[in-house]
Amino acid sequence: MLKCVNFSKSYGKEAIIQSSSFELRENKISFLMGPNGSGKTTLIKCMMGMEKYDGQFQFNGQAMNQVKDQCLVLWDDCPFYTNLSGIKNLYIFSENKKTKKQIDKIAVKYLEHGILKNKVSTYSYGQKKKLALILVEILEPELLIMDEISNGLDYEMIRRLQDIIKGWSEKMTILLTGHQFSFYNDIVDDLLVFKDKEIVVLQEDFIESGKELGDIYDKEIL
């Protein structure tokens, strides 16, 4: 479980996020909703200790800086070494958690062997996204945060990814952000929203509510 207590973030005199407290339930898929510029990326950076902030984040009872090896963030544009092949990137970022043979077996579930041997500089946006998804299966983090993960993926992969993320949540605590509500609507357990510069848990057990993320966005944010 990730616990946030009295979190706030300002740039100079401008408050971006005011005092907020919330929890991400263990082995649940939480979705963070907010318009562009509301602070979603800022929140993630603060969680990971990339920016200064007020308040406290804990994961499974420990400060975040003590459990970074248990966490993985996939940004909308994941940074890979573009002059190296996809498979070599995976070997480098695997942190020795899997053998090369295990990595190869995982990788070909997402990308063809020939593509994996090509330099990342030749990859499409969607292929880079798939490379990042392979990394999740290799590292098996306890806390997984994904920003706009469905961007750039074709319909078939999007449908498949919904099932993949549901499966991951059996072992991982997951936080998602994005704007393609039709993708997230069927997999979200808990819904958090930015409202009046605060982060609040709006709905637990969201799937059972029968509500639509788009309708909630119109009502709570627009």
Explain how this protein is built.
The longest helix has 15 residues, at 125-139. The protein has 2 domains: 1-23 and 41-66, no CATH class; 69-176, Rossmann fold (3-Layer(aba) Sandwich). With 222 residues, the chain is an alpha/beta fold. The mean pLDDT is 94. The protein contains 9 helices and 10 strands. It has helices spanning 40-47, 86-93, 100-107, 113-116, 125-139, 155-168, 181-184, 206-209, 213-220; strands at 2-11, 14-24, 29-33, 54-59, 62-63, 71-74, 143-147, 173-177, 190-195, 198-203. The strands form 2 sheets. The protein has a 6-stranded mixed beta sheet with strand order 6-7-8-3-9-10, sandwiched between helices. The two termini are 30 Å apart. Strand 7 (143-147), helix 6 (155-168) and strand 8 (173-177) form a beta-alpha-beta unit. It is globular, with a radius of gyration of 18 Å.
